[in-house]
Amino acid sequence: MPAYIYSILHLSGLVLVFLSLGGAVVRSMSKSDEPAIRKLVGLSHGIGMLLVFIAGFGLIAKTGVGFQAWVFIKIGIWVLLAVLFAMINRKPDLAKTLWYIVLLVAVIAIFLVYRKPFAHYDVAPDVAPTKQAQASE
Ligand code: HEM
After folding, report:
1. Could you report the per-residue pLDDT of 71-120, keeping only the tens digit for each?
2. Residue 65's pLDDT band (boundaries 50, 70, 90)?
3. Distance in Å from the first CA to the final CA of the chain
4. Is the CB of 110 under 6 A from ligand 1?
5. Residue 18 is part of which domain span?
């Protein structure tokens, strides 16, 4: 499967994840217990997180970026997005604050992708040097 398909799946998963996080904040702030909303938000989050994960690892393989530090940080951010979803649902009083934390986390992840800080620091040195690492040498 060409890399652009993984990118499309990765970004579509992200749209689902952030739709669900926004929906969860609104549901918590409005103290709504409507089962249809809970189901829509929950399903969107689950499917979105799965797509981001699978396509993200597909992109690691397809783009040859390897397991660089920024990739590991992004995997940490992926876990954090799951924790934030649980917190929004369990602590409705924090929902509004978590809205801004979700935005901050998203901006950090996008910065990581387009700037790739620590790109020459390869977390798995036994993997063949990445194109960036070769270019920066
Ligand atoms: C399991 C977690 C994740 C993994 C393994 C992963 C991995 C990757 C990889 C390898 C790329 C391609 C980079 C390149 O083309 O040089 C990528 C692109 C991208 N990732 Fe992730 N990512 C993950 C989670 C996230 C999260 C949580 C966000 C945002 C909040 C995110 C946003 C993006 C964006 C915006 C792109 C650029 C897409 C493009 O231009 O093709 N990723 N990701």
Report:
1. 999 999 999 999 999 999 999 999 999 999 999 999 999 999 999 987 75
2. confident
3. 31
4. yes
5. 3-116
CB of 71 closer than 6 angstroms to any ligand 1 atom: yes
Atom of ligand 1 nearest to the CA of 53: 1
Residue 35: inside a domain: yes
Residue 133 inside a domain? The answer is: no
Residue to mutate, 9, 62, 74, 122, ligand 1, most ligand atoms under 8 Å from C-beta = 74
Measured in angstroms, how far is the CA atom of residue 113 from the centroid of ligand 1?
6
Q: Report the chain's mean pLDDT, rounded to a whole number.
A: 90
Q: What is the pLDDT of residues 15-33, one digit of tens each?
A: 999 999 999 999 999 999 9
Positive or negative, the CA dihedral 61, 67, 70, 75 is positive
Q: How many CA atoms lie within 13 A of 83 on its CB side?
A: 8
**Ligand 1 centroid distance, CA of 125 (Å):** 21
Q: Whole-prediction pTM value?
A: 0.86
